[in-house]
Amino acid sequence: MGKTITEKILAWHAGRDEVRPGELLGARVDLALANDITAPLAIEAFRAMGAERVFDPSRVALVPDHFAPARDIPAAENCALIRDFARQQGLEHYYEVGRVGIEHVLLPEEGLVLPGELIVGADSHTCTYGALGAFSTGMGSTDLAMAMALGEVWLRVPESMRLRYEGELKPWIGGKDLILHTIGSIGVDGARYRAMEFCGPAIDALSMEGRFTMANMAVEAGAKNGIFAVDAKTRAWLEKRARRDYRAFESDPDAVYEEEITFDVGALEPQVAFPHLPSNVRPISQAGEVKIDQVVIGSCTNGWLEDMETAAGILEGREVHPHVRTIIFPGTPRIKLEMIRRGWMETFIRAGAVVSTPTCGPCLGGHMGVIAAGERAVSTTNRNFVGRMGHKEGEVYLAGPAVAAASAVTGRLTDPREVMGG
Amino acid sequence: MSGMILEGKAWRYGRDVDTDVIIPARYLTLTDPAELGAHCLEDLDPGFRRRVRKGDFIVAEENFGSGSSREHAPLAIRGCGVSCVIASSFARIFYRNAINVGLPILECPRAVDDIGGGDHLRVDLERGMVENLSTGNTFEAQPFPDFMREIISLGGLVEYVRKRLGK
Fold first, then answer.
1. Which of A133, A154, A218, B47 has the most beta carbons within 10 angstroms of its beta carbon?
2. B68: which chain A residues are within 8 Å (Cβ-Cβ)?
3. CATH number of the domain that residue A362 is part of
4. pLDDT grade, residue A101 (50/70/90)?
5. Residue A145 and residue B70: Cβ atoms within 8 Å?
């Protein structure tokens, strides 16, 4: 019986010839990740376990990105706790403000997450690295403590579902539109406990950034992981970045999937998830008149250089609507530097947008862009739950960077074609 | 979590109760369960915290605990005195986290269909039995796999790893 990429990676890491969906197993971890929200509890659990040293100081990454630069004294104390632990353990991958980026953009950029690897992170969007053909999944702090202590986690082998995308994408359509359309179709638990395997001609044509965006939101459909086969684009992306050798797996032609869905995306319009679920998706033509107060462009979902390019292309020579706050937060310092080199910082500032340091802040209503009661935000982030970006009576509309930038210009939810023509 | 009979009132919610409403991110610099518990569900049901009593149950429909990996969510539920969450289904990270930190959970869609807000429940965790004293109906929850039973019987993942490390 054939096996999927996910099953092959898990078998390799469990030291087995093969595994079957539903099995529980112990598996070796290539990298364990935590941030400033989840690491404090993980460190507490690590100590309670009686552990003294992490299993390998080169394979634990601590990334203070959520409430850093510290938003208040408790956040500062959590960041200090993490820094002290990183120093005491001699961790190679701890990032101080100035070098820190948003974890799921930073680690791929650093070449620390690679095809065929098993990555666990105490952050639900750890599933992002599936874009590189890795098995990666989010867990809680206590699971992460076990990974830090033993270099191992327990996992249930997920059933796989295959999602195939046919057709050629129209201009302004990207990975965000594909994944929102998918979640809109299958629901927020449509892939619960499963592996989502993405394939098809539209995926082959999609950039690496677009694939990261799709894998990132697999958890929004309830999935354990999202995964893509390694191709020439993946190898090219890794060429200057990979810090280790890697092993690329592919699914067998007779691999077994619990469900297979094909989407024809040739005519797909820009997609928007209305409050308060990522599955509450409509094409932009059916959005109606939605006036907005804030636009957020960035995050682990859309904080890539390509997203910044899309936004800059729309805001170049235009102005943000006077009633709108537009906050742009690139994924990493390296991306921000490249934005300076390419002149986009000037584009954004002249347009009346603010460019933040890389942080998760506004996405989860932490800081740097919290919304008030009654305010509406168009955001390229991944969740629009009640209270996600601040006040429980605020509203978040999820979209890709093109819709977000176009909406910033008009002050209402807007199709990029309206602003740019075509 | 074994050998315990729990009794209390049901707090009934719908589907997709996410971790952002269980404990909003503005409180995530806290780590103490009691402090987290003081804000549990405040954006979904502002009256809950004032009226919940020790031993009560949260009863919810599909996909309970969806969203973020924050372990603060099961800690907040435990911290406000809730003895057990009964749901039609759980989001996977929440499910792991609850077992790892010793918050009892039961997956039992038929019981959820039967239970209304304010019903009085009796739950036998060891046998996975849910009894709705208000309707007189009894339900059996999905059993846990053996490996998870081992973690549960040790009181959580911390003790499991302690044992592995020979502590």
1. A218
2. 123-124, 364, 383
3. 3.30.499.10
4. very high
5. no
- Beta-carbon contacts of residue A242 (< 8 Å; ≥ 6 apart): A111, A114
What are the beta bridge partners of residue A291? A412
pLDDT given for residue B143 in this prediction: 86
Residues A339 and A392 in one domain: yes
Which residue in A35, A126, A188 has the most chain B C-beta atoms within 10 A of its own C-beta, making it the best mutation to test that interface?
Answer: A188
**A and B: number of Cβ contacts within 8 A:** 138
Rounded alpha-carbon distances, angstroms, from residue B123 to B8, B56, B85: 9, 11, 11
Q: Please check whether residues A50 and A142 belong to one and the same domain.
A: yes
**Chain A interface disruption, residue of B148, B154, B158, most A CBs within 10 A:** B158
Q: Identify whether residues A149 and A84 lie together within a single domain.
A: yes
d(CA A296, CA A369): 8
Q: Say what the pTM is.
A: 0.97
Element (H, E) at A233: helix A232-239
Percent of chain A whose predicted confidence (pLDDT) is above 70 = 100
Residue B2 has pLDDT above 80, yes or no: no
Shared domain check, A282 and A231: no
Q: Name residues whose C-beta falls within 8 Å of residue B136's C-beta, 6 or more positions apart in sequence.
A: none
| Sheet strands (E) in A211-353 | 225-228, 259-264, 271-273, 281-283, 294-298, 325-329
Closest alpha carbon to A155 in A337, A19, A330, A338? A19
Q: Which two tokens stand for residue B121?
A: 């429940």
Q: CA-CA distance, A46 to A144, in Å (whole number)?
A: 9
Residue ranges making up the domain that contains A173? 5-243+256-262
Q: B134 vs chain A: nearest CA distance in angstroms?
A: 31
Does residue A125 have a cis peptide bond before it, meaning omega lies within 30 degrees of 0?
Answer: no
Bond from prior residue into B143 cis (ω within 30 degrees of 0): no
How is residue B151 written in tokens?
């973690």
